[in-house]
Amino acid sequence: MSQLAIVVHYHELWLKGGNRRFFISKLVSNLRSGLEGIPVEKIEQPNDRVIIRLKEAASLEEALRRVERTSGIAYYAVARPVEREINALCDAAWQEIEPCAFATFAVRAKRSDKSFPHSSSETEKLVGKHLLDSLNAAGRSARVKLNDPDVTCHIEITSGPALVYAHKVPGAGGLPANTAGKMTCLLSGGFDSAVAAYHMMKRGAHLSFVHFYGSGARPGESSIHVARGLVRQLVPWQFTAKLYRVPFEEIQREIVRYAPEPCRVLLYRRMMLRIAEAFARRNRALALVTGDSLGQVASQTLRNMVSVEAAAKMPVFRPLAGTDKLEIIEAARKIGTHDISAEPFHDCCPVFLPRSPSLHANAADLEAAESGLDVAGLVRQGVEGATLETYRYVAGQVEMSESPRKFKQNAAIA
Question: Which residues 6+ apart lie within 8 Å of 63 measured at CB?
Fold first, then answer.
């Protein structure tokens, strides 16, 4: 019997028309990178699917874990590659479903290579009869049910091997990593921004991260360890990432000193956008990403979000704008960031929190509130005080290095 293989199916990539080849080649390249360090015999692409052939020494469990975190995949399965001959298909189908507990079953065949002598429906009937006979001989009571059976045995006749499997696993979906351009995400440490980052990564964007942190927290409560943990959890989706750590408390104190109290949080956010935008331009990113959810907190009313965004020259993407907190937390559990964000940490935004924050500010009001501030100087302070960490996902592990260099802010883009 041939070594088991992983068969990968994609769906949305078929909608790309003349660009389809680019997206599929990127998916295959990402699979190769994601499986680095695992003994892979070869990766094939027969008839609109990808087949990963593992060597005997390879860990199937580890390979599946990495495939699971590869965007662009509709579903995948562990399949038995067999000769394109009906008896071989019957034997493999029985080996596939015999260990399963079920009362009803069906066989679904897809003949991509028309040189195979049996049509899809003929293959289904022949293999189905063999399975039914084998079940009866084993004293097991089961019947064929074409609609919503307990178990479905899938058979794919490709121009390469024939594939037999009974368990389809939903993939991450979306588009292959690094196919949509660069964006910069404001990473707070909470549930929302990490989930927002994941959604944009899944659409093919490559993200850098900017994290603003304060001082004065009790030992062990700094938000930096949370930001690092989130980037470590997210970087396998795109293989590399930059994290800019920006000390923010002194900038907040300056805002508190000169600006009206109700506007404080909104001015914090405007300053964060400006600083993040400076790093985005350095990385040739085209847009910013935030975890805002419409109406979730006072600073995220519609008017306030519009007024805050007016401080940025780049577009600001908010992939969670229409989701509620329960949906966001569920997504965080799914991608593995929930427990990291749930750790105690010192969030800089609630520092000097106004007693009655503004709910319906407009951009002109916020610009007036900033009139006493040296905005360009504060942006420069944030940029030049930042520290850069670089993350790489290699052979199933995340590596981090810290850059010793300091940044100089170009006044032209402040």
Answer: 6, 35, 38, 52, 54
Question: Which distant-in-sequence residues (6+ apart) come within 8 Å of 404 by Cβ?
Answer: none
Closest CA to 187 of 213, 214, 209, 215: 209
pLDDT in tens, 363-390: 999 999 999 999 999 999 999 999 999 9
Question: Among residues of the chain, what percentage have pLDDT more than 70?
Answer: 93
- Kindly give, in sequence order, each residue whose CB lies less than 8 Å from that of residue 170, ignoring residues fewer than 6 positions away: 74, 75
Question: Position 407: which residue type?
Answer: F
Buried b / exposed e along 104-135 (16+ C-beta atoms within 10 A): ebbbbbebeeeebebebeebbebbbebbeebb
Which residues, other chains included, contact 359 with Cβ-Cβ below 8 Å and sequence gap of 6+? 298, 301, 303, 304
Beta-bridge partner residues of 73: 173
What is the DSSP code string of 210-275?
Answer: EEEE-S-PPTT--SHHHHHHHHHHHGGGTSEEEEEEEE-HHHHHHHHHHS-GGGHHHHHHHHHHHH
Q: Could you give the CA distance from residue 365 to residue 359 in angstroms, rounded to a whole number?
A: 12
CA distances to 94, 96, 130, 137 from 134, rounded to whole Å, are 8, 12, 6, 5
Q: What residue ranges define each of the domains in the chain, with the CATH number in brackets?
A: 5-173 (3.30.2130.30), 182-413 (3.40.50.620)
pLDDT for residue 413: 43
